[in-house]
Amino acid sequence: MRIGHFTEVYKPVINGVVNSISLCKRILESMGHEIYVFTIGNEDHQDDEPNIVRSPAVPLSDTGYHLSFRFSRRAQELAGSMEVLHVHHPFLAGRQALRIAQRNNIPLVYTNHTRIDLMAQVYLSLIPDSLSSAFLEAYMPNFTGHCSLVVAPSRTTSELMRSWGVTCPIEVIPNGIDLAPFRQAESLPGASLGFPESATVAIYVGRIGGEKNLAFMLRAFRAAAADVDDLYLVLVGEGPERENLEDLANQSGLRDKVKFAGEVPYEQIPSYLAMADLFVMTSTGEVCPLNVMEALVAGLPVAAVDVPGVAELVADGVSGLLSEQTVESFAISLYRLASDRQLRVRLAGGARPGSRERARTHRPSAATLRRRPERR
To answer: Which CATH number goes with the domain that contains 24?
Structure first.
């Protein structure tokens, strides 16, 4: 089968959507399917995999993202030869994929990777929530009405789309991950980041952006670190908020306690996780975060804010600690995990088996091809 993925961002950018598409592509190719990725920008990037089709686009500052209202003629013609089009963003890439699908009578599948409503609150803060909600309630039913299937990475996401008026078939398929690298990783030496041997290391892996609520994380970490001398935090990733967060860390007296590792090749992430003692997550807008799944498979207890999407992965008191959306509550979770090694060991034991089973069940290869959609 010839399948074309439409995405507004791909490598060299590293994020959950890119990793999800890349893994799905690799697994489906191993099953004998012919997979293409249609994306925009970074035309000079040397791809290390076949069938990546890039169209010209305008860079959006230094975010790694690009803007384009039309894929190239070559991309459109090639996409028209696919048997299925799978789109990962509903707006610019979504409308272009929809036109190609309709023109060539090709089934269209859409995966909703993000909480679009919450992203709008962060990046379009001048627009009233009521207005952005009204837009989604008008746009999403219209767009998805042309899709043969919508994939939701979590039950919560499916329910949210239903609340927007989406009536087409929805398949709930949590994100898949490659288990082996996270089970077998060799630990990165803590000393390479300047941590002492006695350090208890909390780690965050992901985009350093406003939607990840990382200023909240630093404030809570400061409170916990005041009572746990050897507690350190490493943030792995890059994004527009890094400079602001570095300033906040310095102003909070955390210069020696918080390390910004920057962008790290994805294949090195398992070693960073193997170095850490616990994983921290403060984002309130996740649907099925790959970084949390990877941490669980690596055997790390997770301290997270109790929100839909995350709570579907982390069992409070079993594989991690879920807190209220307050700095004080999250700081208490951090303190408990940092100061109680036996608690970390117990929760790590609850993390690894459950996450392995979830990830095995939801590999993108079998799940995408076999499951029947949930119908309204």
So the answer is: 3.40.50.2000
Please check whether residue 193 lies inside any domain of the structure. Answer: yes
**Residue 17 near residue 90, CB atoms below 8 Å:** no
User: Which residue has tokens 């002492």?
Assistant: 196
Residue 17 corresponds to which tokens in the numbers above?
């959507």
What residue ranges in the chain does DSSP mark as E strands?
2-6, 34-40, 52-55, 58-59, 66-67, 84-87, 108-111, 149-152, 170-172, 200-205, 231-236, 258-262, 278-281, 302-305, 320-323
Measured CA to CA in angstroms, residue 160 lies from 89, 107, 136, 154, 291 at distances of 16, 24, 11, 10, 22
119/210 Cα distance (integer angstroms) = 9
**Amino acid identity for residue 290 in this structure:** L
Whether residue 376 lies inside any domain: the answer is no
Considering the domain architecture, whether residues 208 and 224 belong to the same structural domain is answered as yes
As a residue count, the chain comes to 376
> Is residue 148 in some structural domain?
yes
Q: Do 232 and 208 reside in the same domain of the chain?
A: yes
CA–CA distances in Å: residue 124 to residues 92, 120, 211: 17, 5, 11
Q: How many domains does the chain have?
A: 2
Give the β-pairing of 66-67 and 58-59. Answer: antiparallel
10 and 154 in a single domain? The answer is yes
What's the first-to-final CA gap in the chain, in angstroms?
Answer: 28
pTM of the full structure: 0.82
- Rounded to an integer, what distance in angstroms lies between the CA atom of residue 261 and that of residue 249? 14
Residue 129: pLDDT band (50, 70, 90) is low
Backbone Cα Rg of the chain: 21
What is the model's pLDDT at position 308? 87
Q: Give CA separation, 261 vs 205, 206, 235, in Å.
A: 10, 11, 6
Please tell me the predicted confidence (pLDDT) of residue 134.
Answer: 86
Q: Which residues form the domain of 18? A: 2-177+363-370
